[in-house]
Write a structure and sequence with these properties.
With about 170 residues, the protein is of the alpha+beta class. The protein has one domain (about 5-165): Alpha-D-Glucose-1,6-Bisphosphate, Chain A, domain 4. The protein is built from three helices and eight strands.
Length: about 170
Amino acid sequence: MIAPLRRLECRQTLPLDPAAAWEFFSRPENLARITPPDLGFAVTALLPQRMYAGMIVSYRVTPFGGLSVPWVTEITHVREPEFFVDEQRSGPYRFWHHQHHFQAVAGGTEMTDLVHYQLPFGALGDLLAGALVERRVAGIFAYRRQMLAELLGPGGEGVSAKNAAERR
């Protein structure tokens, strides 16, 4: 039996026009600036100046207890300045699909992160670590919201986040 497909959705209004929001998020080096330090995020390969469909990003993360693991993602879709998608090619998840959407709203740009992920080791992996990983992923995005507010300024109606587990 496979683990359930989990879902995390976060929205945040940024006090930037869509072009400026896109400029920030299309630069791969900015990911480290909005990732919690305790995740031990480190890029392990040279990155281009701008993101493009087909781009491979290789890094290491330390998700739990000092265990450092390699993680490789591919930017699979890019429609500037509306959205891009990154998908895990190898790493800590069985499945990882992360959509980043940008939409002009009064006062700036609403950014939506929609993440679908699945843990390894099937139902046993989910039983043993599902709730812990769900809290960890939510915490990573909470930190990201906080850092974006500090780096780019508070925005509009603020931030909301929704979590849900989806069964196949």
